[in-house]
Amino acid sequence: MIIPAGWAWIELINRQQKLNALKQSVIITPDIAGGITFKGKVIVYKDKSSITFYSSKCTHLGCTINKMENGVIVCPCHGSKYDLNGNVIEGPAVNSLTKLDYKVDPKTGNYIVKPV
Ligand code: FES
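The joint structure predicted for all components is written out below.
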């Protein structure tokens, strides 16, 4: 079977784009501990019945958020505080954390999260 070169080229580009998207994804295993977990570009909030993924990029000036203090998520740069649902409870940030889309791998049950 002869495949036109243009079609083969488009297929190659599509595969490369999918591979790049997968490389940028963060894989979260389903056995992750409850509560808040910081995973690089992703903040995971798992409670008894649900799991939510937020970008760890602070909505003030973009610092990476990586800590909790007294039960709230705290940005290390200027001290913005967010509740467990990603809502601002103290500025300077004014916008909630960004919720991230994810897929579940049907084979492993792992969450595949795409950071922004
Ligand atoms: S960058 Fe997070 S509070 Fe300023």
